Amino acid sequence: MEVVLPQDLKQDAGLAKRRHAELRRQKRVFDARSRIIGGDTEAWNAQVHDQKIKEATERARHETFAAEMRQNDKITCILEDRERRDRKTLCRAINNFQQSFQRPETRREFDLSDPLALKKDLPARQSDNDIRNTISGMQKFMGEDLNFQERKKFQEEQNREWSLQQQREWERARASHRCAEDLHLQTRLRFDETAKHLQTLERTTRRAVCAAVKEFNRKQAEESMERKKQERKQEEEDNLAEISSLLHGDLLSENPQQAASSFGPHRVIPGRWKGMSREQLQQIRLTQKQQVVEKLRLQEEECQRDMDWDQQRVQKAREALLHERQRQRQQRDLRRALDDSNLSLAKEQKKHIDEVRRNQLTRDYFTQFNTRSR
After folding, report:
1. Using the 8-state DSSP alphabet, how is residue 277 labeled?
2. Pick from 171, 170, 223: nearest CA to 52
3. What is the C-alpha to C-alpha distance for residues 339 and 122, in angstroms, rounded to an integer?
4. What's the CA gap between 39 and 30, in Å, rounded?
5. Are 265 and 275 in contact (CB under 8 A)?
């Protein structure tokens, strides 16, 4: 959760005030009814000044936040490393304890699940005092248990040793837990001191930024006043020079030479030109008449050229028509000769087919006759 400081509230209020002023300025500038012609240099200067102040403030604020974020990241990394090491140490201690004091063979019920029980098992009877001889084994027949007191005492001693061992383990675990808590408390205290030091640095940085912004604003105000004074003085001198130039210049005296342009004698300055002279008007009219005569001559030449081209096209078309007719006659003669040749060939082929048929009929007839004679 972030802590809201008075400086943050003051900055938010300043930003809101500047935002409201900017909205009012935009409404005033972009409104077509209330906007005036020209630019407001004072307003522009004020905007540039406000923008520089805003950029300097935002830059300092971002740098402060960046330093704070970097410090927080370092603190978080340190805490995560410490927690990881503590967890690893605790897991290692638990594993060592389990391997040293909680091995499977030390359990009371290990004999029930021992995989090597058959290999470790003893013969059914080793002696008369063998405690493994049960009634169902029928190895020993007794009316009472003679080793009951010794076995009970041994079990009590064993339970006492187990209890003492558990108490010692519990004491070691509590001591380790207290040591971890003390170390965590010391780490938290160091982190609190670091955070306090960072807050002190942040306040010092903000105070230095405010002093720098104030000094910058003062210098900007002095420079703006000096610049306005110089501009006012220069404007007065320019106005006096302009008035003197207008009084003694060619504009008010209407000197015709003032319209002459530096690009050539045929060019004039539109803002100073007083009109053409009579000689210039006569020259323009003479040039227009010459242009009309030249245009008529060009039109006549174009008409004559079109007539020549039309005659050439008609001659070419007539020659093409004659050539096409001659080609058609030649094709007609060739087609007639080809038809006559095809007709003669068809007659000869028909005559040859008739002879072949007659010969075939004759052979068939003789063949049938010979067959019947046999």
Report:
1. -
2. 223
3. 133
4. 13
5. no
In degrees and rounded to multiples of 5, residue 267 shows phi and psi of -110, 145
Q: How confident is the model at residue 88 (pLDDT cuts 50, 70, 90)?
A: very high
pLDDT at 240: 84
Closest by Cα among 128, 137, 166, 131 to 151: 131
pLDDT digits (tens, 9 = 90+) for 168-181: 999 988 888 888 88
CA dist 160 to 8, 151, 190, Å? 66, 14, 45
pLDDT band, very low/low/confident/very high, at 86 (cuts 50, 70, 90): very high
What token pair was written down for 58?
């935002």
CA 102 distance to own-chain centroid: 59
Give 205-208 contacts, CB < 8 A, sequence gap 24+: 205/60, 205/63, 205/64, 206/7, 206/60, 206/64
Residue 45's contacts (CB-CB under 8 Å, 6 or more residues apart) are 224
Count other Cβ atoms within 10 Å, centred on residue 220.
15
- Give the pLDDT confidence of 193-249 residue by residue, as tens digits: 888 888 888 888 888 888 888 888 888 888 888 888 888 888 888 888 887 776 666
pLDDT above 70 coverage of the chain, percent: 80
CA distance 35 to 282: 52
Q: Is 274 helix (H, G, I), strand (E, B) or coil?
A: coil
pTM of this prediction? 0.23
What are the angstrom distances between the C-alpha of 43 and each of 17, 26, 40, 50? 17, 12, 5, 10
Whole-angstrom Cα distance, residue 127 to residue 118?
20
Cα-based torsion angle of the residue sequence 187, 190, 194, 197 in order, rounded to the nearest 10 degrees: 160
Local confidence band at 1 (pLDDT 50, 70, 90 cut-offs): very low
Here the tokens at position 138 are 């029928």
> Which residues are registered as beta bridge partners of 216?
none
Q: For residue 239, give the 3-state DSSP assignment.
A: helix
Backbone angles phi, psi at 271, to 5 degrees: -70, -15
List the structure tokens of 217.
């604003």
The pLDDT of residue 351 is 85
Q: According to the model, what pLDDT value does residue 45 have?
A: 79
